[in-house]
Amino acid sequence: MKKITINQKKALLTAHILFASIMLGVMVTFLVLSIAAATTDDPEVFQACYAVMLVLAGSSVRASTIGTVVTGVLLSVLTHWGLLKYYWIIAKELLTVVAIGIGMIGIYVWSLKAADLAGEAGWDALHNPEFLANRLYLVTGIVCQLVSLAGMFALSVYKPWGKRGSIV
Question: Where are the domains of the chain?
Answer without folding.
Answer: 6-158
